[in-house]
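Changelog excerpt

This revision adds worked examples to the README so contributors can see how folded entries look when concatenated. The first example is reproduced verbatim below.
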Amino acid sequence: MKPYIFITRKLPEQVVARLTEKYEVKMWDKEDEAVPRDRLLLEAKKADALLTMLSDSIDEELLSVGEKLKLIANLAVGYDNINVKAAAEKGILVTNTPDVLTDTTADLTFGLLLATARRLVEAAEFVKEGKWQSWSPLLLAGHDVHHKTIGVVGMGSIGETVAKRAKGFDMNILYHNRSRKPKAEEDLGAVYCSFEEILSQSDFIVCLTPLTNETKNLFNQESFKKMKKSAIFINASRGAVVNEKDLYEALINGEIAAVGLDVFEKEPISANHPLLQLPNVVALPHIGSASIETRTEMMHLCLENIDLVLSGKKPKTPVTH
Protein backbone atom coordinates (compact mmCIF):
# COMPACT_ATOMS: atom_id res chain seq x y z
CA MET A 1 0.00 0.00 0.00
CA LYS A 2 1.31 3.45 -0.95
CA PRO A 3 1.96 5.98 1.85
CA TYR A 4 -0.95 8.43 2.18
CA ILE A 5 -0.57 12.21 1.99
CA PHE A 6 -3.35 14.66 2.78
CA ILE A 7 -3.12 18.31 1.67
CA THR A 8 -5.38 20.75 3.52
CA ARG A 9 -5.98 23.12 0.55
CA LYS A 10 -6.42 22.55 -3.14
CA LEU A 11 -3.08 23.03 -4.88
CA PRO A 12 -2.48 23.08 -8.66
CA GLU A 13 -2.62 19.55 -10.04
CA GLN A 14 0.62 20.06 -11.99
CA VAL A 15 2.47 20.88 -8.76
CA VAL A 16 1.19 17.82 -6.91
CA ALA A 17 1.73 15.50 -9.90
CA ARG A 18 5.33 14.81 -8.90
CA LEU A 19 4.12 12.76 -5.91
CA THR A 20 1.09 10.97 -7.29
CA GLU A 21 3.07 8.09 -8.81
CA LYS A 22 4.79 7.17 -5.56
CA TYR A 23 2.07 8.08 -3.06
CA GLU A 24 -1.66 8.22 -2.57
CA VAL A 25 -2.42 11.93 -2.47
CA LYS A 26 -5.69 13.57 -1.55
CA MET A 27 -6.46 17.27 -1.30
CA TRP A 28 -9.22 19.26 0.35
CA ASP A 29 -11.17 20.43 -2.67
CA LYS A 30 -11.55 24.13 -1.79
CA GLU A 31 -8.83 26.70 -2.44
CA ASP A 32 -10.18 29.44 -0.16
CA GLU A 33 -11.91 27.53 2.63
CA ALA A 34 -10.29 25.79 5.57
CA VAL A 35 -10.76 22.06 5.89
CA PRO A 36 -13.32 21.36 8.66
CA ARG A 37 -11.85 20.17 11.93
CA ASP A 38 -13.64 16.82 11.92
CA ARG A 39 -12.39 16.09 8.39
CA LEU A 40 -8.84 17.08 9.34
CA LEU A 41 -8.89 14.74 12.34
CA LEU A 42 -10.19 11.93 10.14
CA GLU A 43 -7.46 12.48 7.55
CA ALA A 44 -4.75 12.78 10.22
CA LYS A 45 -5.70 9.34 11.49
CA LYS A 46 -4.99 7.83 8.04
CA ALA A 47 -2.11 9.98 6.82
CA ASP A 48 1.61 9.34 6.73
CA ALA A 49 2.16 13.05 6.01
CA LEU A 50 0.10 16.24 6.14
CA LEU A 51 0.71 19.37 4.12
CA THR A 52 -0.82 22.13 6.23
CA MET A 53 -1.53 25.86 6.25
CA LEU A 54 -1.19 28.41 9.06
CA SER A 55 -4.94 28.32 9.63
CA ASP A 56 -4.85 24.58 10.43
CA SER A 57 -4.55 23.87 14.15
CA ILE A 58 -2.11 21.00 14.55
CA ASP A 59 -2.54 20.49 18.28
CA GLU A 60 -1.99 17.62 20.67
CA GLU A 61 -5.43 16.15 19.91
CA LEU A 62 -4.67 15.89 16.22
CA LEU A 63 -1.15 14.59 16.75
CA SER A 64 -2.51 11.91 19.08
CA VAL A 65 -4.92 10.53 16.48
CA GLY A 66 -2.19 10.60 13.81
CA GLU A 67 -0.97 7.09 14.54
CA LYS A 68 0.90 6.82 11.22
CA LEU A 69 2.04 10.43 10.94
CA LYS A 70 5.69 10.94 10.14
CA LEU A 71 5.65 14.55 8.97
CA ILE A 72 3.75 17.85 9.13
CA ALA A 73 4.88 20.06 6.22
CA ASN A 74 3.68 23.62 6.89
CA LEU A 75 3.24 25.93 3.88
CA ALA A 76 4.71 28.94 5.70
CA VAL A 77 7.87 30.10 7.39
CA GLY A 78 5.95 30.38 10.67
CA TYR A 79 4.67 27.36 12.55
CA ASP A 80 2.84 28.74 15.59
CA ASN A 81 -0.20 26.75 14.43
CA ILE A 82 1.67 23.53 15.27
CA ASN A 83 2.47 22.10 18.70
CA VAL A 84 6.07 21.38 17.74
CA LYS A 85 6.98 20.07 21.20
CA ALA A 86 4.15 17.52 21.18
CA ALA A 87 5.06 16.49 17.62
CA ALA A 88 8.68 15.91 18.64
CA GLU A 89 7.60 13.81 21.60
CA LYS A 90 5.61 11.60 19.24
CA GLY A 91 8.47 11.35 16.74
CA ILE A 92 6.64 13.42 14.12
CA LEU A 93 8.84 15.76 12.08
CA VAL A 94 7.76 19.33 11.29
CA THR A 95 9.03 21.35 8.33
CA ASN A 96 8.43 24.89 7.12
CA THR A 97 9.36 27.02 4.09
CA PRO A 98 12.05 29.52 5.12
CA ASP A 99 14.24 31.58 2.78
CA VAL A 100 12.20 31.03 -0.41
CA LEU A 101 9.72 33.74 0.62
CA THR A 102 12.13 36.32 2.07
CA ASP A 103 12.29 38.78 -0.83
CA THR A 104 8.61 38.47 -1.69
CA THR A 105 7.51 39.11 1.89
CA ALA A 106 9.93 42.03 2.18
CA ASP A 107 8.47 43.52 -1.03
CA LEU A 108 4.96 43.27 0.38
CA THR A 109 6.00 44.70 3.74
CA PHE A 110 7.63 47.73 2.18
CA GLY A 111 4.72 48.09 -0.24
CA LEU A 112 2.35 48.12 2.74
CA LEU A 113 4.49 50.81 4.36
CA LEU A 114 4.34 52.94 1.19
CA ALA A 115 0.60 52.38 0.75
CA THR A 116 -0.10 53.40 4.35
CA ALA A 117 2.21 56.42 4.34
CA ARG A 118 0.98 57.80 1.03
CA ARG A 119 -2.66 56.78 1.51
CA LEU A 120 -2.64 54.84 -1.77
CA VAL A 121 -5.63 52.57 -1.06
CA GLU A 122 -7.71 55.48 0.19
CA ALA A 123 -6.75 57.54 -2.87
CA ALA A 124 -7.57 54.74 -5.32
CA GLU A 125 -11.01 54.30 -3.79
CA PHE A 126 -11.50 58.08 -3.83
CA VAL A 127 -11.10 58.07 -7.62
CA LYS A 128 -13.20 54.92 -8.19
CA GLU A 129 -16.05 56.32 -6.10
CA GLY A 130 -16.20 59.48 -8.23
CA LYS A 131 -15.15 61.79 -5.40
CA TRP A 132 -12.30 63.44 -7.31
CA GLN A 133 -13.92 66.68 -8.41
CA SER A 134 -10.95 69.05 -8.27
CA TRP A 135 -7.30 69.33 -7.28
CA SER A 136 -6.19 70.96 -4.05
CA PRO A 137 -2.74 71.29 -2.46
CA LEU A 138 -3.40 68.92 0.45
CA LEU A 139 -5.79 66.50 -1.25
CA LEU A 140 -5.09 63.08 0.35
CA ALA A 141 -1.67 64.29 1.49
CA GLY A 142 0.25 61.58 3.28
CA HIS A 143 3.70 61.25 4.81
CA ASP A 144 7.11 61.15 3.15
CA VAL A 145 9.05 57.91 3.42
CA HIS A 146 12.44 59.00 2.14
CA HIS A 147 14.98 60.20 4.72
CA LYS A 148 12.71 59.14 7.59
CA THR A 149 13.61 56.69 10.36
CA ILE A 150 12.44 53.10 10.15
CA GLY A 151 12.53 50.84 13.19
CA VAL A 152 12.49 47.12 12.44
CA VAL A 153 11.37 44.91 15.33
CA GLY A 154 12.50 41.36 14.51
CA MET A 155 15.62 41.54 12.34
CA GLY A 156 15.54 38.07 10.83
CA SER A 157 16.14 37.47 7.14
CA ILE A 158 12.91 39.26 6.16
CA GLY A 159 13.72 42.17 8.47
CA GLU A 160 17.19 42.55 6.95
CA THR A 161 15.70 42.46 3.46
CA VAL A 162 13.15 45.15 4.37
CA ALA A 163 16.08 47.21 5.70
CA LYS A 164 17.80 46.88 2.30
CA ARG A 165 14.75 48.36 0.65
CA ALA A 166 14.67 51.14 3.23
CA LYS A 167 18.30 51.93 2.41
CA GLY A 168 17.23 52.65 -1.16
CA PHE A 169 14.86 55.29 0.21
CA ASP A 170 17.70 56.91 2.17
CA MET A 171 16.05 56.00 5.44
CA ASN A 172 17.78 55.85 8.81
CA ILE A 173 17.57 52.23 9.94
CA LEU A 174 17.10 51.20 13.56
CA TYR A 175 16.47 47.63 14.62
CA HIS A 176 15.70 45.53 17.68
CA ASN A 177 16.36 41.82 17.78
CA ARG A 178 17.32 39.05 20.20
CA SER A 179 20.82 39.13 18.74
CA ARG A 180 22.93 41.76 17.02
CA LYS A 181 23.29 41.70 13.22
CA PRO A 182 26.86 42.86 12.47
CA LYS A 183 26.49 42.42 8.70
CA ALA A 184 23.37 44.61 8.58
CA GLU A 185 25.14 47.17 10.73
CA GLU A 186 28.16 47.21 8.42
CA ASP A 187 26.38 46.97 5.05
CA LEU A 188 23.27 49.02 5.75
CA GLY A 189 24.31 51.28 8.59
CA ALA A 190 21.59 49.72 10.74
CA VAL A 191 21.76 50.74 14.39
CA TYR A 192 20.86 48.33 17.19
CA CYS A 193 18.43 49.86 19.71
CA SER A 194 16.34 48.86 22.66
CA PHE A 195 12.65 48.25 22.03
CA GLU A 196 11.81 51.50 23.85
CA GLU A 197 14.22 53.47 21.65
CA ILE A 198 12.64 52.00 18.52
CA LEU A 199 9.21 53.11 19.71
CA SER A 200 10.21 56.66 20.59
CA GLN A 201 12.59 57.43 17.71
CA SER A 202 11.04 55.78 14.64
CA ASP A 203 8.74 57.36 12.07
CA PHE A 204 7.84 53.88 10.83
CA ILE A 205 7.76 50.90 13.19
CA VAL A 206 7.77 47.62 11.26
CA CYS A 207 6.94 44.44 13.16
CA LEU A 208 8.48 41.26 11.74
CA THR A 209 9.03 39.30 14.93
CA PRO A 210 7.86 35.68 15.26
CA LEU A 211 4.98 34.94 17.62
CA THR A 212 6.27 33.55 20.91
CA ASN A 213 5.19 33.74 24.53
CA GLU A 214 7.48 36.75 24.86
CA THR A 215 6.16 38.62 21.81
CA LYS A 216 2.44 38.03 22.27
CA ASN A 217 0.77 41.44 22.79
CA LEU A 218 4.20 43.09 22.52
CA PHE A 219 2.51 46.06 20.89
CA ASN A 220 -0.03 47.26 23.42
CA GLN A 221 -1.37 50.44 24.99
CA GLU A 222 1.96 51.18 26.66
CA SER A 223 3.87 50.64 23.41
CA PHE A 224 1.64 52.88 21.31
CA LYS A 225 1.81 55.70 23.87
CA LYS A 226 5.60 55.73 23.48
CA MET A 227 5.42 56.25 19.71
CA LYS A 228 5.44 59.60 17.95
CA LYS A 229 1.98 60.96 17.15
CA SER A 230 3.12 61.00 13.52
CA ALA A 231 4.33 57.36 13.65
CA ILE A 232 3.05 54.74 11.25
CA PHE A 233 2.90 51.14 12.47
CA ILE A 234 3.23 48.18 10.09
CA ASN A 235 2.64 44.54 11.07
CA ALA A 236 3.56 41.76 8.63
CA SER A 237 4.46 39.11 11.21
CA ARG A 238 1.64 37.60 13.30
CA GLY A 239 -1.59 39.22 14.42
CA ALA A 240 -1.32 38.17 18.05
CA VAL A 241 1.85 40.23 18.49
CA VAL A 242 -0.51 43.22 18.60
CA ASN A 243 -3.30 43.98 21.05
CA GLU A 244 -5.89 45.05 18.48
CA LYS A 245 -8.14 46.81 21.00
CA ASP A 246 -5.20 48.93 22.18
CA LEU A 247 -4.23 49.63 18.56
CA TYR A 248 -7.75 50.82 17.78
CA GLU A 249 -7.73 53.11 20.82
CA ALA A 250 -4.33 54.52 19.83
CA LEU A 251 -5.64 55.37 16.37
CA ILE A 252 -8.89 57.02 17.42
CA ASN A 253 -7.09 58.95 20.16
CA GLY A 254 -4.49 60.24 17.71
CA GLU A 255 -1.58 58.60 19.51
CA ILE A 256 -0.24 57.31 16.19
CA ALA A 257 -0.96 58.43 12.64
CA ALA A 258 -1.79 55.27 10.70
CA VAL A 259 -1.36 51.52 10.51
CA GLY A 260 -0.79 48.91 7.80
CA LEU A 261 -1.68 45.32 8.63
CA ASP A 262 -1.19 42.11 6.68
CA VAL A 263 -2.06 39.93 9.69
CA PHE A 264 -4.72 39.80 12.39
CA GLU A 265 -5.29 37.99 15.65
CA LYS A 266 -8.18 36.00 14.16
CA GLU A 267 -8.12 35.28 10.46
CA PRO A 268 -10.00 35.78 8.26
CA ILE A 269 -11.06 39.07 9.82
CA SER A 270 -14.72 40.13 9.92
CA ALA A 271 -15.71 43.10 7.76
CA ASN A 272 -17.26 44.57 10.91
CA HIS A 273 -13.95 44.62 12.79
CA PRO A 274 -13.47 48.09 14.37
CA LEU A 275 -10.07 48.61 12.74
CA LEU A 276 -11.58 48.24 9.27
CA GLN A 277 -13.89 51.17 9.90
CA LEU A 278 -10.98 53.63 10.15
CA PRO A 279 -9.68 55.48 7.07
CA ASN A 280 -6.07 55.44 8.31
CA VAL A 281 -5.91 51.63 8.37
CA VAL A 282 -4.64 49.68 5.35
CA ALA A 283 -5.64 46.04 5.76
CA LEU A 284 -4.50 43.10 3.63
CA PRO A 285 -5.56 39.42 3.77
CA HIS A 286 -2.24 37.90 4.91
CA ILE A 287 -0.61 37.95 1.48
CA GLY A 288 3.02 38.52 2.51
CA SER A 289 4.42 35.71 0.36
CA ALA A 290 1.62 35.68 -2.19
CA SER A 291 3.32 35.93 -5.53
CA ILE A 292 2.71 33.14 -8.01
CA GLU A 293 6.43 32.36 -8.21
CA THR A 294 7.02 32.25 -4.45
CA ARG A 295 3.89 30.36 -3.46
CA THR A 296 4.68 27.75 -6.12
CA GLU A 297 8.23 27.42 -4.79
CA MET A 298 6.85 27.03 -1.26
CA MET A 299 4.56 24.23 -2.45
CA HIS A 300 7.46 22.46 -4.14
CA LEU A 301 9.55 22.74 -0.97
CA CYS A 302 6.76 21.20 1.12
CA LEU A 303 6.38 18.34 -1.34
CA GLU A 304 10.14 17.81 -1.47
CA ASN A 305 10.24 17.56 2.33
CA ILE A 306 7.40 15.03 2.28
CA ASP A 307 9.09 12.92 -0.39
CA LEU A 308 12.41 12.95 1.49
CA VAL A 309 10.88 11.92 4.81
CA LEU A 310 8.64 9.21 3.36
CA SER A 311 11.70 7.88 1.49
CA GLY A 312 13.56 7.53 4.79
CA LYS A 313 15.75 10.61 4.32
CA LYS A 314 16.18 13.83 6.27
CA PRO A 315 13.94 16.77 5.33
CA LYS A 316 15.44 19.85 3.72
CA THR A 317 14.00 22.44 6.14
CA PRO A 318 13.21 20.83 9.52
CA VAL A 319 11.81 22.85 12.41
CA THR A 320 13.62 22.22 15.67
CA HIS A 321 11.94 22.93 18.99
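The second example, added in the same revision:
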Amino acid sequence: MSIRIVLAGDHQLVLEAFAETLNGVDGLEVVGLATSYDAVQPAVERHRPTVLLLGESTMGGKALRVATDVRSRHPKCGVALLVGAATSSVVDRAVAAGALGVVPKNARLPQLVTTLMGVAGGCLTVDPSLLRPVAVGELSLSTREMDVLRLTAGGATVKEIAGELYLAAGTVRNLTSAAIKKLGGRNRFDAARIAGEHGLL
Protein backbone atom coordinates (compact mmCIF):
# COMPACT_ATOMS: atom_id res chain seq x y z
CA MET A 1 0.00 0.00 0.00
CA SER A 2 1.41 3.36 -1.07
CA ILE A 3 2.16 6.27 1.23
CA ARG A 4 -0.22 9.01 0.12
CA ILE A 5 1.34 12.48 0.13
CA VAL A 6 0.01 16.01 -0.15
CA LEU A 7 2.67 18.57 -1.06
CA ALA A 8 2.32 22.17 0.13
CA GLY A 9 4.50 24.99 -1.12
CA ASP A 10 4.47 28.40 -2.72
CA HIS A 11 5.04 27.55 -6.39
CA GLN A 12 2.80 25.32 -8.52
CA LEU A 13 5.51 24.50 -11.08
CA VAL A 14 8.01 23.46 -8.39
CA LEU A 15 5.39 21.30 -6.68
CA GLU A 16 4.45 19.60 -9.94
CA ALA A 17 8.11 18.77 -10.64
CA PHE A 18 8.57 17.57 -7.07
CA ALA A 19 5.43 15.43 -7.33
CA GLU A 20 6.71 13.80 -10.53
CA THR A 21 9.97 12.88 -8.76
CA LEU A 22 8.23 11.39 -5.72
CA ASN A 23 5.73 9.50 -7.87
CA GLY A 24 8.70 7.77 -9.45
CA VAL A 25 9.63 6.24 -6.08
CA ASP A 26 8.12 2.84 -5.37
CA GLY A 27 5.66 3.04 -2.48
CA LEU A 28 5.02 6.80 -2.70
CA GLU A 29 2.05 8.51 -4.34
CA VAL A 30 1.47 12.27 -4.45
CA VAL A 31 -2.30 12.68 -4.29
CA GLY A 32 -2.63 16.44 -3.98
CA LEU A 33 -0.94 19.86 -4.10
CA ALA A 34 -1.61 23.03 -2.13
CA THR A 35 -0.09 26.42 -2.91
CA SER A 36 -1.82 28.57 -0.30
CA TYR A 37 -2.51 28.47 3.41
CA ASP A 38 -6.24 28.20 2.81
CA ALA A 39 -5.79 25.32 0.36
CA VAL A 40 -3.97 22.95 2.74
CA GLN A 41 -6.86 21.84 4.99
CA PRO A 42 -9.23 21.24 2.05
CA ALA A 43 -6.51 19.22 0.29
CA VAL A 44 -5.98 17.09 3.40
CA GLU A 45 -9.75 16.67 3.81
CA ARG A 46 -10.22 15.70 0.18
CA HIS A 47 -7.24 13.39 -0.32
CA ARG A 48 -6.77 11.92 3.20
CA PRO A 49 -2.97 11.66 2.84
CA THR A 50 -0.68 9.60 5.03
CA VAL A 51 1.82 12.48 5.06
CA LEU A 52 1.68 16.22 4.46
CA LEU A 53 5.04 17.56 3.24
CA LEU A 54 5.37 21.29 3.88
CA GLY A 55 7.96 23.80 2.72
CA GLU A 56 9.29 25.85 5.66
CA SER A 57 8.53 29.12 3.87
CA THR A 58 5.12 27.87 2.82
CA MET A 59 2.29 30.41 2.80
CA GLY A 60 4.24 33.38 4.07
CA GLY A 61 5.93 31.57 6.94
CA LYS A 62 2.77 29.91 8.26
CA ALA A 63 4.10 26.35 7.86
CA LEU A 64 4.30 25.69 11.60
CA ARG A 65 0.72 26.91 12.08
CA VAL A 66 -0.36 24.61 9.23
CA ALA A 67 1.44 21.68 10.90
CA THR A 68 -0.35 22.30 14.19
CA ASP A 69 -3.74 22.73 12.51
CA VAL A 70 -3.42 19.56 10.44
CA ARG A 71 -2.22 17.43 13.36
CA SER A 72 -5.09 18.62 15.55
CA ARG A 73 -7.79 18.05 12.91
CA HIS A 74 -6.30 14.99 11.22
CA PRO A 75 -4.14 13.09 13.73
CA LYS A 76 -3.70 10.18 11.30
CA CYS A 77 -1.87 12.48 8.88
CA GLY A 78 1.83 12.83 9.69
CA VAL A 79 3.57 16.11 8.90
CA ALA A 80 7.08 16.50 7.52
CA LEU A 81 8.81 19.87 7.10
CA LEU A 82 11.25 20.73 4.31
CA VAL A 83 13.57 23.45 5.69
CA GLY A 84 16.38 25.65 4.45
CA ALA A 85 18.66 24.74 7.34
CA ALA A 86 17.93 21.93 9.79
CA THR A 87 19.23 23.34 13.08
CA SER A 88 18.38 22.23 16.62
CA SER A 89 16.13 25.26 17.14
CA VAL A 90 14.29 24.64 13.85
CA VAL A 91 13.77 20.98 14.80
CA ASP A 92 12.53 21.94 18.28
CA ARG A 93 9.98 24.38 16.84
CA ALA A 94 8.86 21.91 14.19
CA VAL A 95 8.39 19.04 16.65
CA ALA A 96 6.57 21.35 19.07
CA ALA A 97 4.21 22.27 16.22
CA GLY A 98 3.46 18.59 15.60
CA ALA A 99 5.83 17.73 12.76
CA LEU A 100 7.34 14.23 12.88
CA GLY A 101 9.97 14.79 10.21
CA VAL A 102 12.39 17.58 9.32
CA VAL A 103 14.46 17.45 6.14
CA PRO A 104 16.94 20.10 4.90
CA LYS A 105 16.41 21.25 1.32
CA ASN A 106 19.94 20.15 0.43
CA ALA A 107 19.16 16.54 1.44
CA ARG A 108 19.36 13.79 -1.15
CA LEU A 109 16.23 11.94 -2.28
CA PRO A 110 16.94 8.76 -0.22
CA GLN A 111 16.97 10.85 3.00
CA LEU A 112 13.63 12.42 2.11
CA VAL A 113 12.13 9.03 1.27
CA THR A 114 13.36 7.58 4.57
CA THR A 115 11.83 10.52 6.43
CA LEU A 116 8.49 10.18 4.63
CA MET A 117 8.36 6.47 5.45
CA GLY A 118 9.19 7.12 9.10
CA VAL A 119 6.56 9.84 9.40
CA ALA A 120 4.00 7.59 7.70
CA GLY A 121 4.70 5.03 10.41
CA GLY A 122 4.11 7.59 13.15
CA CYS A 123 7.80 7.89 14.07
CA LEU A 124 9.74 11.07 14.81
CA THR A 125 12.30 10.97 12.00
CA VAL A 126 15.02 13.61 12.24
CA ASP A 127 18.80 13.63 12.42
CA PRO A 128 19.53 12.52 16.05
CA SER A 129 22.36 15.06 16.28
CA LEU A 130 19.77 17.85 16.04
CA LEU A 131 17.84 16.65 19.08
CA ARG A 132 18.89 18.17 22.39
CA PRO A 133 21.06 15.66 24.26
CA VAL A 134 19.39 14.50 27.45
CA ALA A 135 21.41 13.67 30.53
CA VAL A 136 20.46 10.39 32.21
CA GLY A 137 19.39 12.23 35.34
CA GLU A 138 16.94 14.31 33.29
CA LEU A 139 15.11 11.37 31.77
CA SER A 140 11.49 11.32 32.82
CA LEU A 141 8.63 9.72 30.95
CA SER A 142 4.95 9.84 31.76
CA THR A 143 3.24 6.59 32.70
CA ARG A 144 1.48 6.51 29.34
CA GLU A 145 4.74 7.16 27.44
CA MET A 146 6.34 4.25 29.30
CA ASP A 147 3.33 2.03 28.51
CA VAL A 148 3.62 2.87 24.81
CA LEU A 149 7.36 2.22 24.72
CA ARG A 150 7.01 -1.02 26.68
CA LEU A 151 4.53 -2.34 24.10
CA THR A 152 6.72 -1.00 21.28
CA ALA A 153 9.67 -2.93 22.67
CA GLY A 154 7.50 -6.04 22.44
CA GLY A 155 6.97 -5.43 18.73
CA ALA A 156 3.41 -4.06 18.85
CA THR A 157 2.16 -1.85 16.03
CA VAL A 158 0.61 1.58 16.70
CA LYS A 159 -2.84 0.08 16.08
CA GLU A 160 -2.19 -2.77 18.52
CA ILE A 161 -0.89 -0.36 21.17
CA ALA A 162 -3.97 1.83 20.74
CA GLY A 163 -6.23 -1.19 21.27
CA GLU A 164 -4.28 -2.45 24.28
CA LEU A 165 -4.27 0.95 26.03
CA TYR A 166 -7.77 2.05 24.88
CA LEU A 167 -6.31 5.12 23.17
CA ALA A 168 -6.78 6.66 19.75
CA ALA A 169 -3.98 5.85 17.31
CA GLY A 170 -3.25 9.58 17.02
CA THR A 171 -2.78 9.78 20.79
CA VAL A 172 -0.35 6.85 20.64
CA ARG A 173 1.61 8.63 17.91
CA ASN A 174 1.75 11.84 19.95
CA LEU A 175 2.92 9.96 23.07
CA THR A 176 5.51 8.16 20.96
CA SER A 177 6.79 11.42 19.46
CA ALA A 178 7.09 13.01 22.89
CA ALA A 179 9.02 10.02 24.23
CA ILE A 180 11.33 9.96 21.19
CA LYS A 181 12.12 13.64 21.66
CA LYS A 182 12.79 13.24 25.39
CA LEU A 183 15.09 10.27 24.84
CA GLY A 184 16.80 11.48 21.68
CA GLY A 185 15.86 8.32 19.78
CA ARG A 186 15.92 7.94 16.01
CA ASN A 187 12.49 6.31 15.97
CA ARG A 188 10.06 4.61 18.36
CA PHE A 189 12.04 1.39 18.51
CA ASP A 190 15.26 3.25 19.28
CA ALA A 191 13.45 5.20 22.01
CA ALA A 192 12.19 1.93 23.50
CA ARG A 193 15.75 0.59 23.49
CA ILE A 194 17.11 3.73 25.22
CA ALA A 195 14.33 3.63 27.81
CA GLY A 196 15.04 -0.02 28.50
CA GLU A 197 18.76 0.62 28.89
CA HIS A 198 18.02 3.29 31.52
CA GLY A 199 15.61 1.11 33.45
CA LEU A 200 12.53 3.16 32.55
CA LEU A 201 10.41 0.26 31.26
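Reviewer comment on example two: The radius of gyration is 16 Å. The domain at 3-130 is CATH 3.40.50.2300 (Rossmann fold).
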